[in-house]
Amino acid sequence: MTPFFFGEGQRRLFGVYDPAEGLNAKAPRAVVFCAPWGPEYTFSHGVFRRLALNLAAGGYHVLRFDYFGAGDSAGESTEADLEGWRTDIDSAIDELKSMAGALRVSLIGARIGAALAAEAAVRRVDIDRLVLWDPVVVGRSYLDELELKHAAWVNERTRYLPLPPADTPNRLCHPLPARIEQQMAAIDLAGLLTRLKQKILLVLSESRGTDAAALGTIANVIPNRLTLERVRDRPPWREDSPEFGGPMPVNALGRITAWMG
Amino acid sequence: MSHSYMIAEAILLRLSARGVDLWVEAGNLRFRAPRNAIDADSRQEIAANRDAIISVLNERGVQPASQAAGERIRPRAAATGLPLSSVQKRLWFLDQIDPGSLRYSIGSSLRVREPLDLDIFAAAVDDLFARHEAFRTRIVAVDGEPVLDVLPRARIALDVVDLSSDPPTDVEEAVRTFGREALRTPLSMAEGKLALMRAVRLTPSEYFIVFVVHHIIADGRSLDIVWRDLHEFYHARAERRSARLPLLKLQYSDFASWERNRAQTKGFAGHIAFWRETLAQAPRLDLPVDRPRRAQGSSRGGRYCGHIDKADVEALKDVARTRGATLFMALLAVWQTLLSRLCGQDDIVVGTPLATRDEEGLADIVGCFVNDVALRGDLSGSPRFTELLERTKNRTLAAFRHSDLPFDMVVEAVNPPRTSSYPPLFQTLFTLMDFQGGEDPAPGSTVAAPIDGDTGASRFDLSLELSRASAGPQAGAMLAAYEYDAVLFEEATIERLHGQFRRLLRAAHQTPEARLHDVPLVSDDEAHRMANDWNATAHRFDRERPVHRQIAEIARQHPGTVAIRAGTAELDFAAFDAQSNEIAHRLVGLGAKTGTRVGVCLERGLNLPLALAAVLKAGAAYVPLDPAHPVERTRLILEDADVMCVLTTSDLAGQFAFASVLLLDEQATAIAAAPDRPPQVSIGADDIAYLIYTSGSTGRPKGVEVTHGNLAAFLDAMRLKLGPAAGKTLLAVTTPAFDIAGLELWLPLTSGGRVVLADSADTVDGSALTSLIDAHDIGLFQATPTTWRLLLEDGWQGKADLTALCGGEAMPVDLAEALIDRVENLWNVYGPTETTVWSAMHRVVAADVGGGRRPIGGPIPNTRIYVLEPSGTLAPVGAPGELVIAGDGVARGYRNRPDLTAERFVDLRILGRTERVYRTGDLARWRADATLDFIGRRDGQIKIRGFRIELGEVEAALSSHPAVRQAYVSVSNGGSGSALVAYLAFWLGGEPTTSELRRYLRAKLPDYMVPALFVTLEAVPLLPSGKVDRARLPNPFRAGTRAHRRDEPPADGIERTLADIWCELLDARDIGPGDNFFELGGHSLLSLRVAAAVQRRLGSRMDPRALYFQSLREVAAGIQRNGAGLGQ
């Protein structure tokens, strides 16, 4: 596991590289993770670490990274936006191609990261396969969902003590500037899916609602390239008491690792 | 495969190249051919081999293309969104990368010597465009994919220049210029400008017309078609009649569609399998370039034309024919041999373009009907030419049998590593054109010809196009046209290469049973120049005047001059001479004499040079031992050297318990009582002066025996080369166990200079070295690159009157750049221990910096250097070869290693004389200016994905980054094979990201030399010698989080049962003994269920908390002990 910084100028991005294990005589295989946003990223961090190790053991070069304004990358969370994260994903792909000597990379995206990964796959010609894990399908719905979670969280937290005032709108203490909110609201994954030429694995946790139905419909439209997997695991981006951070979604990890081959 | 079968295949191949279509009908051989394609010789050949030809055709199931059921090309209906052919897609892609590149412009010219009506001509051009859809093609990108639109109409402007009123003085030069300018006019795929036509009116009845077109819509045959059709259209209009041209039932886009459909049939699976196997691991061609290659291939091309005698062509053709091969195969064999020798590779891939107009209906249409085929040559074992010809024939026939697969599909199937610096699969093109001299494509008072000029671009590093007229007045002669990358090569290099090609070609037909690898590539003149003129280094000197006598002479002349300074102590020459004599007498008393050896193990100080000189005076050979070396190494050296005594001090004597010692400290009084005059010892030039041990490849050090004559020659050479600097004050920093210390100690003392001996701590302290240089007004300093960097990192600003020597390792370019302005003279010095310290030296000048060279100059006086091919012949200028050294510096050999001595110290026969030489194992090349370039170790070449890489070059590029303090590059084995890893230490506050480093490096290096990983360190760990301690470098590919091998299953019994329980609860597979429950996805609630299951199945109690931090094996062990708890 090699931590390092990539990116140019002010956009200094933190990445963790797991090299492929075992000598692979074939062309190098590589995968970049496109993380969720905010609290969902925090809760699922360990899951992606485990997935990275599994894939590295399976012969993949893996790159996980923090978007600008998130984690250990440069920038404040209030300085970030989706447009910038799109270029971060491009930087990560280019960097991993250089490190692994790969011509093409696969993308594994979760939640908002899945939508961004799908956009990258439409935009670029060097994306091999795509894994979309509980993707954000309709940006507005996602924001509504975050709003509800935040409200429930606030309700819980303020039962005994008031919350201090926040300078920036936030969801579960993660700043959500208006700019980012607007960009998230514009996400429409369904329209993107039909434009994708790559093979896609769509992983849906069973507890999802209407989005899953919509995606299932799409899956019927483009059956050849899309594999739909419904898993029983609890989604790792939810905070679940008393475990905090969610259990390890072994089924989902196993399905993804197996599909990646 | 029978001989007659192969002859038949060869005949069919040759005829196919001429556009001849042969098939079998009712047992009879039928053919269709362009006019004059089958000459009398061919008819005779066909008749003589009729049965074999029929057999081959029957086996292939060949039918005339028009009758091949289900494979006929059909006209398509659509005019837009049409697919491109495979070759068109590739050319389109290349244009996306480098828009407007001239690499793929082709052209032809027409000289018209009769009045020309330009209006009618322009109308004829319109007719031409109307006839051929290729000229009405527009290529557009839809969702990133290119498609063809055929426009109903398209025109090009006929640009006309009228010189008739003011004709140029030199008409032919004007014509050439006109043609060249046309060829160098960029075409634009994006704008749909894929062709241009220009005319110059020289006189009212003489015109010169050029037509330039992008290869994406035309090929060489298309240019002939253009002139033929244009001629007919012009005369049809002039005569007010219909043009009489063959009806075109198809257009190029029909072919493209057909090709795409055919590629998806199952029939291509066999071709794919063939190419995957044939081109697996195909290496890059590492041509010896004159200038370094950069990240992106160059588009500056050059062209050189040479001739090959008709007699040589005919003779080679005869040799080929008697062996059932074609002239093409013979020429290819010779060409691949030349490449093999120039590149030092015996696996050579070249490409050749094949025409793909075999199908019916394609002969008369304009389009790009070319498919490149990769031909891989096996030159291993230095085969005889006849054997090589056989290999080439078999491989070529096999390749051509599978040539239906479009080249793009071959590349996709083989999937070689890609880089922007090299085209995939082959980097050089080889073409044999067979012009039909009897068919003038534009009969009448017009002559069509290639444009006399070039595009100024180069498709490949180097291409060779051989054209041979098979009829007409030039029949039999051969023109060799080389297209080359002018950024990489000088024209003189290509000219030399042509001469080498001719030489090999002649040898191939004169002595076909000989090995072409043994044929000298250099002419007699070149050999004389390299072996004699460039080695004219003879200088008279007295071999019988050993070092200690030279010092004694200086002492007589300048007794009071300070000779040695160490710290605050110093000795003048008189004292040095006297004290060393005293020690010598003591050694003689102990038995030292000529033929014996004395070990010297001392800390750096005055005693060190005294002791070494004393041993020489006693007639013995000194064996320097570094006190910092591991005891085991010292023990091995002493064992091999069989020293009669060790000169040392009491603090170091402990490791010499088994040897006789002379303690310079404890026995100082006794030593001082010895005579201070020199002992009477007879020493000859061939007696051993010192025995220096170097690392052996097996790990056992080997002792190099250097004689007094060797040392005297070396010192004489240094005085000549360095001039007055030899007699200045020198700062000595090198351990005496490294032979270059010999220069530091003996050169000043034998030249009237002074030695300032730095102590051990100072030798690795840049600040201390700076102080010493200033304090003692040092005029001469020799150091390795590592030590020079210590000075620079300390901020040393230089010394204007300092002569600097850099050696021991290759001097990085950035170091040269930093030093050159800080010193008066900077010398890059080269030499193995086996030829006495240095054998070549180069005074570095500003022009050397940034040029990518690693010059080591020429041989020093009384030394001769040769660069040899593996066959032992002289390598031509520019070609890599092993550097061997002859002359007065060549040591006696290795002590106690007669086998190794015989292997490395050999007799070389060169230009009628025999010399004893030392084979260095280093690769070098001569340049045309008589200087040598160091390439690297012959046996230590690093190759990554087929590319030869000099790690030092990568390090130099990294070190030039302002933020990089130290850089070291090595090769590690990652998941995809070998990868370059850079270990970097940065200046504080200046660490760039990996992306920034990559961008920086790509501006300096080809991308295959850019490291895959960059590992940040506080400092690059070093050994005491100053070399990198590779054992302490972290391996970034080592899996740090996996503590066990996944393929080890749980042991039977409790482990197995526990693993089953975990699998059930975690819905997992393949749980190993090293796995942890929680890392696999378990959680607290599940851990309770594990405990319950263990109770149920094994009857044992298990604390669920045992699962927290323990592996399956550890938990099972705890269960075994009945009641596993934390930490057990």
UniProtKB/TrEMBL annotation, chain A:
Checking InterPro entries in the record gives: AB_hydrolase_fold, Hydrolase_4
List, for all copies, the residue spans of the domain called Serine aminopeptidase S33.
Answer: 45-163
Query: What residue stretch is flagged as signal peptide?
Result: none
Q: Spell out where the chain crosses the membrane.
A: none
Which domain of life does the protein's organism represent?
Bacteria
Could you identify this protein by its name?
A: Serine aminopeptidase S33 domain-containing protein
Which organism was this protein described from?
Chelatococcus reniformis
Automatic annotation (TrEMBL), chain B:
GO CC terms, sorted: cytosol; enterobactin synthetase complex
Keywords (A to Z) from UniProt: Phosphopantetheine, Phosphoprotein
This entry's Gene Ontology molecular function terms read: 2,3-dihydroxybenzoate-serine ligase activity; phosphopantetheine binding
Is Aminoacyl-tRNA synthetase one of the keywords UniProt gives this record? Answer: no
Q: Does the keyword Phosphoprotein apply?
A: yes
Record InterPro entries: AA_adenyl_dom, ACP-like_sf, AMP-bd_C, AMP-bd_C_sf, AMP-binding_CS, AMP-dep_synth/lig_dom, CAT-like_dom_sf, Condensation_dom
Q: Which BP terms does GO give this entry?
A: amino acid activation for nonribosomal peptide biosynthetic process; enterobactin biosynthetic process
Every Carrier domain range: 1049-1126
Cofactors that this protein relies on: pantetheine 4'-phosphate
One Pfam family cited in the UniProt record for this chain: AMP-binding
Kindly give the NCBIfam families that the UniProt entry links to this protein: AA-adenyl-dom
Q: What is this protein called?
A: Carrier domain-containing protein
What organism does this protein naturally occur in? Answer: Chelatococcus reniformis
Phylogenetic classification of the source organism: Bacteria, Pseudomonadati, Pseudomonadota, Alphaproteobacteria, Hyphomicrobiales
